[in-house]
Hints:
single chain; alpha/beta; Rossmann fold; 2 domains; 7-stranded mixed beta sheet; 9 helices; 7 strands
Amino acid sequence: MAFSGDPVGSGLVASLAHPGSNVTGLSGMAPDLAGKRLQLLKELLPGMSRVAVLWNAANAYSAHSFKETVDAARMLAVELQSLEVRAPADIDGALEAAMSQHADALIVIEDPLTIDHQAKIAEFAIRNRLPMMAGFKMFADAGGLISYGPNPGDFVRESVGYVAKILQGAKPSDLPVEQPTRFELVINLKTAKALGLTIPPSVLGLANEVIE
């Protein structure tokens, strides 16, 4: 796996430490990532009290990430609104629900469904003045306000090491699934200006990339 979401929840491996099968590689799961995203949003929007979360309920990784976001929101005293989707046809209605229930911000959990519709989601967020946080830089490139998460390119590069070990005789079942250890913060200042937001220096100084 050059990149997987939740390989345990999907039944691909028995555990991250001991795959126990003929499959191994890299997973996008990372402890405390959901909490860090909410904390960053809180710094950007101190008055934020309600956050909508767009997630694919048919994806084990998205479900796991949503649960972690719920736990983090409880700790930060933020109310969450679940925007559960399972197919492309669900996205428009889910986004409209975020506005009808007056969400202060939008978190998009990355998976193939939301990635395929990143441009539509970002355009909606800008049009409705809804600050959007997502997991991959591609969402910020598409017009989202901010992204924080691993760089998908790192997974591809690091998967080469697995290929080499297996070609040299290692068994996939003996190679633990790796989780990301490096994360990038990308801020879209063009979107911030369109939303009428000023990015605090404390957050701007953490950015790995700023889109101007």
